[in-house]
């Protein structure tokens, strides 16, 4: 991954969070500690260290962060540091110094520091006189209040910004959502400050206030870009950072936090948003470290589960995720027998069945794996859940492999191959002697030829078996595939390859009408040149120039190709 490609390669939500972290000044330090190895300090729920190693082309070789985020390959702290590095000039910072741009904020700071306190007060008052939002922001910044008063100040600030961007129809358009959440972002900063000062109760109260206001905002805003959702998820992540390691929280505070979060999970504004509701329940479960709180938590989730009809997919999803939380609590605090009993009682949920199968695989209990997998196949086949049926077959295959049941492994492997999974082809092939494999191979191919939707695996097998003549016929029927398969055909069928490129390019030209289309045709022409068809490419370009004299954009792209070739 290159730094210049971050916007294309990173999850948009994580990229947006990283950008907000950077703009908020949460990247406190970036220093080079080795040759193109950087250490950064990022302020989140705590102070986290991020390490990045680059190569000479600004490609990321390694990336680490000590935060507990485990929902994807890159967290927002890493994203913020990568964006900071991207801001660097062409000369990266040397050890002990920073070449990261200071921007106009540093210059403004110097100017403000030169002013007297009185003149700054006058300036601030003049700004607040013209803007309710700025007044609320200033009040929040200088406020010494705590508890409910602080929460209400945050709420007022959030609503002030929202109201500033509501149109005549009491709606916030997608263009204004980013501005309307400014108050929530400022409240997030206040919550982080409270957490840094070990005032966890106030921090959580503010986070819950933001969650309530943002879920309400979703009812009156076009959040097509997911901006409001990002704020909500950031609140939940910060709360997770505070609760996931609850040993450092005093017992009294822990109980207050536990009940605050548990009560919030029942609020009506979370209806229709099960993942956020589940995140709150998970945060509360981290705090349930004694018998009393665990009973309270279980009673609470039991009431919530009882309200689910069980008919809708979302209801079943909610019930399953709650059951998983209960299982992990039992695993952590109760006996192994109780955990096993709970697991076996919930095997109708795919996540529980998968846990049981993986445990059995790890213990070498292959008969148990086969039984669990076959039961899962039967159960989910009736429901039409073909993805799960395939997953159970894959586990059964692992059990056959582990137990050395070759005949059953071959039979099931063939089923998986015919179902479109090429990864099993080579493995079952290696179980046969060469003289036996030929008949098996022909049988598989005959069956695949009848399954037109599995053309991808059919062609991969042709490549594996070096069936170039059959591969050529396959590509003739699908001209676009010549771009992918010419390397396997060129040595034996070079003239046919050139002809297929020509037919495909000329056919594409008849359907092209935009510069993007024309650029794609030139891309295919460059592939033809790479395949050894320089002369053929030249003839095709001349043909296209003659055929389309009035398509100036097309001619422009073709001339660029010709000039680059020279």
DSSP strand tally: 4
C-alpha end-to-end distance: 32 Å
Helix count?
A: 29
Percentage of residues in helical conformation: 55-70%
Put the structure in a nutshell:
With 566 residues, the chain is mainly α. The chain has 29 helices and four strands.
Architecture overview:
- The chain is mostly helical and 566 residues long.
- The protein has 5 domains: 3-95, no CATH class; 130-243; 255-346, no CATH class; 347-402, no CATH class; 468-565, no CATH class.
- Helices cover 67% and strands 5% of the residues.
- It is built from 29 helices and 4 strands.
- Strands 1-2-3-4 form a 4-stranded antiparallel β-sheet, covered by helices on one side.
- Helix 13 (274-287) packs antiparallel against helix 14 (291-306), helix 13 packs parallel to helix 15 (313-333) and helix 19 packs antiparallel against helix 20.
- The longest helix has 21 residues, at 313-333.
- It is globular and about 85 Å long.
- The model is unreliable at 89-104 (pLDDT under 50).
Fold topology:
Blueprint: H1 6-9, H2 12-23, E1 27-34, E2 37-43, E3 47-54, E4 60-65, H3 76-86, H4 103-113, H5 117-129, H6 132-142, H7 148-164, H8 174-180, H9 182-196, H10 200-217, H11 227-243, H12 251-264, H13 274-287, H14 291-306, H15 313-333, H16 336-345, H17 350-362, H18 366-382, H19 386-403, H20 406-418, H21 425-429, H22 434-449, H23 455-464, H24 468-476, H25 482-489, H26 494-510, H27 515-530, H28 534-547, H29 552-565
């Amino acid at each position: 991954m290159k730094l210049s490609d971050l916007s294309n390669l990173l999850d948009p939500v994580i990229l947006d969070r990283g950008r907000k972290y950077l703009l908020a000044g949460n990247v406190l330090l970036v220093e080079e500690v080795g040759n193109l190895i950087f250490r950064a300090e990022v302020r989140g729920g705590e102070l986290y260290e991020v390490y990045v190693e680059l190569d000479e082309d600004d490609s990321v070789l390694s990336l680490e962060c000590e935060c507990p985020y485990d929902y994807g390959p890159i967290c927002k702290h890493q994203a913020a540091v990568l964006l900071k590095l991207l801001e660097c000039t062409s000369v990266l910072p040397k050890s002990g110094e920073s070449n990261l741009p200071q921007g106009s904020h540093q210059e403004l700071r110097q100017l403000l520091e030169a002013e007297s306190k009185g003149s700054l007060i006058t300036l601030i008052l003049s700004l607040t006189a013209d803007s309710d939002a700025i007044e609320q922001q200033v009040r929040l910044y200088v406020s010494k209040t705590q508890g409910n008063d602080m929460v209400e100040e945050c709420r007022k600030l959030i609503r002030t910004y929202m109201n500033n961007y509501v149109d005549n129809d009491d709606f916030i358009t997608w263009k204004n959502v980013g501005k309307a959440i400014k108050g929530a972002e400022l409240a997030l900063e206040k919550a982080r400050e409270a957490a840094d000062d070990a005032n966890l109760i106030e921090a959580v109260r503010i986070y819950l206030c933001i969650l309530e206001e943002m879920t309400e905002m979703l009812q009156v805003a076009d959040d097509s870009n997911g901006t409001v959702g990002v704020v909500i998820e950031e609140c939940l992540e910060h709360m997770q950072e505070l609760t996931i390691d609850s040993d450092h929280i005093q017992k009294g505070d822990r109980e207050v936090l536990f009940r605050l979060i548990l009560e919030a999970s029942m609020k009506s504004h979370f209806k229709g948003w099960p993942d956020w509701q589940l995140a709150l329940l998970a945060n509360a479960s981290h705090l349930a470290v004694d018998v009393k709180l665990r009973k309270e938590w279980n009673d609470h989730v039991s009431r919530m589960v009882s309200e689910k009809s069980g008919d809708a997919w979302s209801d079943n999803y909610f019930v399953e995720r709650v059951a998983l939380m209960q299982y992990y609590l039992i695993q952590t605090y109760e006996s192994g027998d109780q955990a096993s009993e709970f697991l076996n009682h919930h095997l109708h949920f795919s996540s529980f069945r998968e846990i049981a199968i993986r445990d059995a695989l790890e213990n070498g209990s292959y008969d148990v794996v086969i039984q669990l997998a076959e039961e899962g196949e039967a159960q989910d086949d009736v429901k039409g859940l073909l993805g799960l049926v395939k997953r159970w077959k894959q586990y059964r295959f692992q059990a056959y492999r582990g137990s050395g049941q070759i005949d059953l492994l071959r039979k099931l492997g063939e089923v998986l191959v015919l179902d479109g999974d090429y990864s099993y082809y080579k493995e079952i092939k290696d179980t046969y002697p060469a003289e036996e494999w030929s008949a098996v191979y022909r049988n598989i191919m005959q069956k695949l030829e009848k399954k037109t939707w599995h053309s991808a695996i059919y062609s991969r097998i042709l490549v594996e078996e070096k069936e170039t003549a059959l591969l050529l016929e396959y590509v003739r029927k699908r001209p676009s595939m010549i771009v992918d398969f010419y390397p396997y055909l060129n040595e034996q069928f070079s003239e046919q390859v050139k002809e297929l490129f020509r037919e495909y390019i000329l056919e594409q030209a008849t359907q092209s009408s935009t510069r993007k289309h024309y650029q794609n045709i030139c891309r295919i022409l460059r592939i033809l040149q790479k395949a050894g068809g320089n002369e053929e490419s030249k003839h095709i370009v001349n043909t296209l120039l003659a055929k389309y004299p009035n398509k100036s954009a097309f001619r422009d792209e073709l001339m660029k190709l010709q000039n680059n070739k020279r």
